[in-house]
Design goal:
2 copies of one chain form a homodimer. With 358 residues, chain A is of the alpha/beta class. Chain A has 3 domains: 36 residues, no CATH class; 129 residues, Rossmann fold, CATH 3.40.50; 154 residues, 3-Layer(aba) Sandwich (Rossmann fold). Helices cover 43% and strands 17% of the residues of chain A. Chain A is built from 13 helices and 12 strands. Chain A has a 6-stranded parallel β-sheet, sandwiched between helices. Chain A has a 6-stranded mixed β-sheet with strand order 7-6-8-9-10-12, with helices on both faces. In chain A, helix 11 links the parallel strand 9 and strand 10. In chain A, helix 1 packs across helix 2 and helix 5 runs parallel beside helix 12. Chain A is elongated. The C terminus of chain A is likely disordered. At the A-B interface, helix 4, helix 5, strand 2, helix 6 and helix 10 of A face helix 4, helix 5, strand 2, helix 6 and helix 10 of B. Chain A binds a DNA duplex (30 and 30 nucleotides) through helix 2 and helix 4.
Chain lengths: 358, 358
DNA sequence: TGCGTATATGACACCGATGTCATGACATCG
DNA sequence: CGATGTCATGACATCGGTGTCATATACGCA
């Protein structure tokens, strides 16, 4: 590879002048500049980031560690939202003229120390620590020596974190269902020990309360197990109990569960959305868009979380975070309405009457 | 950060001796070694990869460019198999003591030049160029100056490439179906201009021929459009035509299509697999495992492709590729059999008769 | 004309590793 | 006992940029 010395020689100037042309940090004569640029072009010159990093003591690298935390989830498909997170973060980081260094542990937690060591050697300026689902984590000690932002997870030390707004997402979904005329809203939930379960249940209850609907506990049933075991019987029973409470719509804890519920409802001869509406959570487009009918789902805003986390990290690195900036930031996503939810007649009437009123 | 000079001072030796302790390239007295190691530990020292790269002229970096090629697919969810590719490649690359530098264009082709420039500046030793689906690509000129392996794509210049064995995958699936007693096998295909379409059709036909079954063109219908437009009518019509040819099983071009076909078949009152069996392609576990019943699918072996491509690239870099190594390597995946395919009675009879025979 | 100032450029050192070569202390051998 | 070899270690240069400081020329103004 050509170096700055090669360029300098070709252009008949000193290396420092070439440097000035690249960085524009001091005036350079127009003719000199042209000669240097011609030399750079003809030699196909790229400056060495290693040399720059060494001199400037800034690597220009941001580390992201993914697939990292669980020791068990190599047995399960996490749904791969990480790629969206990566894209969101990458966009922001590229704007700051830095490069994202991604380390994916492939779900093997014992690889993490080696990955962190790599980060240290590359002198990453900050770290994005990504969990595969909303959870609490304990941070490795050797992550504490540089700026870090947790994504989709949090710890007990108020380390800066970016989290999905599960409460708000479920609220928006259920509130939207009510606005569309549903009043008996089934809810097949996540396992109770999951963080997201509690938050979403709160969102569900708040939406009912806001709209003056009484909570019926028979409508809310746990639909999944913490371990991806054979959950099918559980889901079948849970659905059975929910259906006995006569819902007009069933909210599922995630799109995968909704996909299963599609099958179960059809086995019972119920047509979606004619006989019953269904909603999911996550908005995995691979599922939600391709199910028939399209699945209404509250979006887990992974791309936005990635971008927000990168932004927060860059401010931490620059030391310019706002004084009022909270350690934990919630990111909300929209509800994507598709055909799996059918407005109930009473709404339509309601809306049309309204329209007359105004 | 502590440097090798800090460690040397703390241990009372020269920097070069510290270097020797780290690299073991020359004998070091046992006591000295211990002193140095203690100093390294107490200073929490990590060697600077920038300095090493500069001195050794080897960056230890491999670049991977993903989501790169299409200008349009930001509108569509590609199914995100890239993360598996990354994991497969990362595993192999980590073993060679290198680091994977990933650049994801987020589907915006105009970002690629900037990403490649970043790779050049970081002096990546080789590049993995990943396409989002099996296709032909034209390579940017500035990728030609270092080792490169194409993944999931190929060009006209015999650039080394790693590709999925679409023909073999479809063959194995259809052959397996026949072994399970199916003889009338519907096939809803990809758009005809896709590379995978032709290959899989060949695999389908070969499986029939191998088993002495005549090809019935009514059983093979295009089920998807090249652009993710409203494909629904197309799929409906295609399915309709296939069903009129009385298949006992329907092969879908991918798992997304299979997911839709589940819905369409059920609308027609057909139960899977009792009335008709269904198979997919890709084995997206997020879909295949969670559909009810579980979807039989031929696996697109992304993790294996990533590993194979990394391996090939490392050999290219080392200059040790085998002389007989073909430019294009096919990677086969298994067929994952799940409950969406029901063996036909005649097989069972057939098998049991056989068993008596032998 | 002489001096201050802005413009344009170069010499040199330095960032943190490591390859090369030199050196000193012992051990071994003829 | 001196020559030779091995072991252990250090001095110094180098990789490719850039910060600092010096220098040279041109220009404006008293």
């Amino acid at each position: 590879m050509a170096t700055i010395y090669d360029v300098a020689k070709a252009a008949g100037v000193s290396p420092k002048t070439v440097s000035r042309v690249m960085n524009g940090d001091a005036p350079v004569n127009e003719k000199t500049r042209e000669a240097v640029e011609a030399a750079m072009a003809s030699l196909n010159y790229s400056p060495s980031s290693a040399a720059r990093a060494m001199r400037s003591q800034r690597s220009g690298l941001i580390g992201m560690i993914t697939g990292a935390i669980s020791t068990t989830h190599q047995f399960e498909d996490t749904g791969l939202p990480e790629i969206y997170l990566v894209q969101g973060a990458q966009r922001v980081i590229a704007q700051s003229n830095r490069t994202l260094l991604i380390a994916d542990s492939g779900g093997q937690a014992d690889r993490i120390p080696a990955l962190l060591q790599t980060f240290r050697e590359h002198r990453v300026e900050g770290v994005l620590y990504v969990a595969e689902y909303h959870r609490e984590v304990g941070l490795p000690a050797n992550l504490r020596d540089r700026p870090i932002v947790l994504v989709n997870c949090f710890d007990t030390d108020d380390t800066p974190a970016v989290l999905p707004d599960d409460e708000g997402g479920q609220f928006a979904l259920v509130d939207g269902l009510i606005k569309r005329g549903h009043r008996r809203i089934g809810f097949l939930t996540l396992p109770e020990q999951q963080i997201a379960h509690g938050l979403r249940a709160e969102g569900y209850v708040r939406a009912l309360k806001t709209n003056g609907i009484e909570f019926d506990e028979r409508l809310m049933q746990v639909g999944a197990l913490p371990i991806p075991a054979n959950e099918f019987d559980l889901l079948w029973d849970a659905l059975d109990r929910v259906l006995r409470a006569e819902p007009t719509v069933i909210c599922c804890a995630n799109d995968k569960m909704a996909m299963r519920v599609y099958g179960l409802l059809r086995e019972r001869g119920l047509a979606i959305p004619r006989d019953i509406s269904v909603a999911g959570y996550d908005d995995y487009r691979m599922i939600a868009e391709h199910l028939h009918p399209g699945l209404t789902s509250a979006q887990l805003p992974y791309a936005a979380m990635g971008a927000r986390a990168a932004d927060k990290l860059l401010r931490l690195i620059a030391g310019t975070q706002r004084p009022d900036e909270p350690a934990h930031e919630l990111v909300s996503g929209p509800v994507v309405w598709r055909d799996s939810v059918q407005p109930r007649d009473n709404t339509i009437t309601h809306l049309s009457t309204r329209r007359k009123d105004t």
